[in-house]
Amino acid sequence: MSIQLIYELAVPPTRIDEVHRLFADHYLPAASERGMAFEGAYISPPIELDDAPTTLVMRFTLPDANAVWAMKRKVTDSVEVAEFWRRVDAIVVSRQRRFLAPYEQK
Questions:
Q1: Which of 3-12, 69-78, 96-105 has the highest mean pLDDT?
Q2: What's the N-to-C CA distance of the chain in angstroms?
Q3: Is the overall model pTM greater than 0.85, yes or no?
Q4: Cα separations (Å) of 17 from 3, 35, 41, 57, 66?
Q5: Which of 11, 78, 98, 100 places its Cα 20 to 30 Å from the Cα of 68?
Q6: Who's near 9: CB < 8 A, 6+ residues apart?
Q7: CB 88 within 8 A of CB 9
């Protein structure tokens, strides 16, 4: 059962490209080494706002719950990942991370 990892970042006006570039340059290259498949970047609303934050959604897939725990172990002590999030946090208004699994009715 694959697990979805969703990052939602509230990005101030005019800074979406900057935050996306940080992901592209400093997070995505090592994401696959952590078992994460990048599924795409999305914005909400579907146009970048010029008077309020726009939400940038970064979506990843991991193969299963074991892969989630393995990924978390790899990033816990990573200086590079900590520096990446420090740089992102200096820009964004807020961020959250969610893990989603398919609901299986019994």
A1: 3-12
A2: 15
A3: yes
A4: 27, 25, 11, 13, 33
A5: 11
A6: 19, 55, 56, 57, 58, 88, 92, 94, 95
A7: yes
Residue 60's CB: how many other CB atoms inside 10 A? 22
Give me 91's structure tokens.
């820009």
Residue 5 Cα to chain centre, angstroms: 7
Q: Are 50 and 13 in contact (CB under 8 A)?
A: yes
pLDDT tens profile 15-69: 999 999 999 999 999 999 999 999 999 999 999 999 999 999 999 999 999 999 9
Radius of gyration of the chain (CA): 14
